[in-house]
Every structure is written in C-alpha cells, then in structure tokens.
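Researcher: Hi, I'm a grad student and pretty new to this. My advisor asked me to get structures for two proteins we've been looking at. I'm not sure of the right format, so I'll just paste the first sequence and hope you can take it from there.
Model: That works fine. Here's the first sequence with its structure tokens right after it:
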Amino acid sequence: VYDREGRLINRDGGGFSARRTILQGTTDLRVEKECREDELFFGMGDKPGPLNLRGQQLENWNTDAFSYGAATDPLYKSIPFFFGLSGGQAYGIFVDNPHRSRFDFAATDPQTVSWNLSGGEMNYYLLYGPSLLRVAQRYHDLTGKPALPPLWSLGFQQCRWSYYPEERVREVCREFRERRIPCDAI
C-alpha cells in the first residue's frame, strides 16, 4: 500500500496462511507484514509494558488476571487494533475477529510483524493516516465512538475493596461531608 506520493505505507511479507489443526479442531490463520527498520507500533488497548510494542508478543484473550504485573498478558479486554508509524507516515490495522489472537511486533523476526488467529475468518482493515490522529479518527468512524460516561463518574471517587455493611458506607459519606472532602461516588 502506497500513499498518493508513492511512499510505502505497508507491505505484505510472508502473506497469508491457514492450517487446520486436528487436535483442537480449529483453523489457525496467519498474516505476515514487512516491518521497516524505523517502524514503531502502538495500541492493543490496556496492555502492561512499554508504549512502543516493537519487540513484543501480545495475546488477545479476555482473562481475569488477578494481581497482574508489568509482564502479564493477556488481561481483561481485547482490542485487536494497532498503529504503525514509519518515516512520519501512520497507519492502523484493525483485526475484525473475536477469536483468540496473538500479535508479534518484530519480536521473533525484526523484519516481520504478524498476527495469528485461532479460528474464524481473516478480516482486517488497514487505515491510512497520514497522521496518528487521522488514523484514530478513521478507526472511530469504522467501529463507532464510545459514549461519554456520566458526569458524576469523572469526579472524586472513594474506592476500596468493600465497605460492609450499608451503615458503614453511610458513615463514610457523613465523615466526608463533615470534613468537607469532595466525593462524587463511593
């Protein structure tokens, strides 16, 4: 894929492959793209670790990872979308498939970015910028913009594992008011 001036944006590497697994009864799908030397990668939702995903392998599979750390993956939600940035040109790839997926951002091979799906169809969208902001706008145009949360949820919140019983919650509320401590939610 090239922009109007003929600059390379994204290119297939090893291409597309599919194989049927006998033991699991699934079809493993794989796409490989070329990775340029200066290419950076961002996105994939709430993943711990470095902001630039280059050199990382990540998995999308919703998992309740209690007490997770900086290297824990997968986590609670899966967002199969990432930004690529090279030579001042940005693009995004949204993989439209809910199956378990694994992304390799030049970790195994520094010249290859790839993703594997454990089933379904290989549907993905390549969104061109040229800026990161324009890619994000195109992603929102494709998937929809998130609803704004209620105003109270953006205020001061008192949080802890639990207040029990209900009378304890009311006691905490009274004390906040008596001490003039702002609080919108408990």
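Researcher: Oh nice, that was easy. Here's the second one.
Model: And its structure:
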Amino acid sequence: MTLSASAIASATKAIEDHHRILILPHANVDPDGISSALACYSILKHIGKDVTVLCPDTPPESLSFLPGFEKFTTEVGESQNFIITVNLENGMEIDKLRYSVEDHKVNIIVVSKKGMIRPERVSFGEGEQRYDLILAVDTADLALFGSVYSEHVDLFSTVPILNVDHHISNTRYGQVHLIDPTAASATEVLYHWFTHVPAYASGITPDVATLLLTGLITDTRSFQNPNTTPRSLEIAAELLDKHTQNLGTRLKSHPD
C-alpha cells in the first residue's frame, strides 16, 4: 500500500483551509516523532502558516542537534478566548476593569466613568480558537498523546485532526488521514507527501532533509529492520543528495 492521490489531496486541502496549526507527536517521543514534527513545522512555516510544534513531554537532549529543536514547546497554551462586550453608545465611558475569583467563579468588574451599565448593554461571545487544525504525526491512537490529550479533551473534540502515520495499528482517529503502513517511518510518509506538492517540495531544505532522514534511519535501525524496503533506501539516497548533516556519530548517542 502507498499513499493514494486522493489521500494526498485531502491532506493538502486540510492544510490549505486552515492557518493556526498545532503539530503534535506522541508522548515518550522517539526520533521519528521528533523529526516528523519538526519537518512539518519547517514546511508549514515555509508556506506561511501560523504553526506551534508541541512535545507532550520534555524532548530528549540527545536530539538537540536536530534543526529547529528549540522551536518545541511543552504547553498547549490558551485554547480559546471568551469575549464580554459592553455597548458604549450614548456617551458611556469606562473608567476601570478588574476581576476577582471567588468560590470557583470569576467576577469581572466594570467601573463606568460616565453613564450606567445595565445588563442589556452587555453581550457575550466566543472568540476564535487558538488552533484551527491539529496535525498529529507518528501517533497510532489519541491516548498516546498522554496528558496533552487527557487534560485537553475538548480541544481534540472540537478542532479537526489531520492524522499522519505509518503504524498498522493506527485507529484512524481524526477527520483526514494520511496513513501508509508499508512506510518504514512517519518521515517516509511525509517525504512522499511533501514531494508530491510543489509548494512543499520547494521547502525541502538541507535541514528538512536531515530531519526526514533521521526518522528513517532510527525507525529502521540503520536500515536493518525487516520494515526496510527498497523504496526506503531510495528515499534515503534522495535525501542524502539534499546535503543532509552527517548523522552517523550523532545518532549513535541515541538509544534505538
């Protein structure tokens, strides 16, 4: 099985239709997950998206040499704004705003400088969510996101998910799927996707090539695992042509 043209088109459209994207690998992340997330970060920044790349736990320092490693955050951050609007027509002016927290409730105090604030002048609304798409990489099941999922279930239930993976055990969560169980790594799936979209292909810099090759080398144990295919070796050669960093010595310091 390989990625179909329709799957690639659906994944690409999901990116085109959204702008504030959260990239997320699994908890207890491995080199393939780290590399996949950072490669996506670089490509999506290249095409002008507002991107956050989050690691559910502290990224391993042994991989700190990877391009973009410093971009990782471990905090989801605010998920949505709630807006309280006061109509200031007829010359009303506001003097002060403050808030207090009592009995698990937030009281927002608005002090007028001129005019009376009455309930009919106040309205409420939901602001836009911090993220409008989750790009999940190298993660077979939602539970594998660990506390990021368990503590932010609402985020995962309200924001669409693009699920990119190579595990045969993938539960096909999310709304859009780019899954190839015959691929040796998640970065192999990404390489296939990126090279079939001209806007993405133009962003495969030596740094991105280094990231994609890292995932491929580590998930195949340096091309010794049975999941290594002739296509995996071809991709590795193509990535080496992109002048990737010398990974051998650096990856030896990371356990398989």
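Researcher: Is there anything I should tell my advisor about the second?
Model: You could mention this: Residues 81-127 form one domain.
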